[in-house]
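Entry 14. Ran structure prediction on the chain below.
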Amino acid sequence: MKILKSLALVIFSLTATFSFAQKSDLGAWYMYFGNNKISKKLNLHNEIQYRNFDGIGDLEQLLVRAGIGYDLTENNNNILLGYGFILSRPYINSEKTENIEHRIFQQYITKQKFGRFNIQHRYRLEERFLEEDFRMRFRYFLGLNIPITNKEMLPKTLYVSAYNEIFLHFDSPVFDRNRVYGALGYVINKNMRIEAGYMNQIQENKNRGQIQIGFYNNIPFTKN
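Output, structure tokens:
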């Protein structure tokens, strides 16, 4: 219970930060990630991200992804084919605009464990169908979860989460962006966890911070 109160305090503090950051470059992302087993080898990926320029109300981007994955080994080495719908509302010359992107992506995820260190590598290839353009992009994600109050990522465990992800275009300019993230997380039960943290993104030689709150759901759709 004390751990839940601590995490609630972190989320409350971040929410308070949103209130004072309405006119700054600090944005807020609210994220849901589902990774649900539909058989021993197959999984359904489902994801919604609601991204704001400020705390809430000024939509920057709505992102919805879904895909089917297959484990090459037991609960590891997952290959996945997916689709993403992205609605973006950027400001151009102080005017709010809107554009839609359809995205197909292929990815490979492999996991490693060294003591308390739970490491994930994700390699993703994206085919991006923009309104007036087509682009391909490669992304490499290196993530790390470290339990604090237990030796394993067990229910009622407080943990630290961090990642770095780099985005590369197949054409010029090659470098697209880089993201660095740190958060505090809590394992609710064996199938659900929640994180609250901060991500800094470098894009076009500019840094922009994002407060992030994410919920992870791994409830299987099968009894096997």
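Residues 2-217 form one domain. Will compare against last week's run tomorrow.
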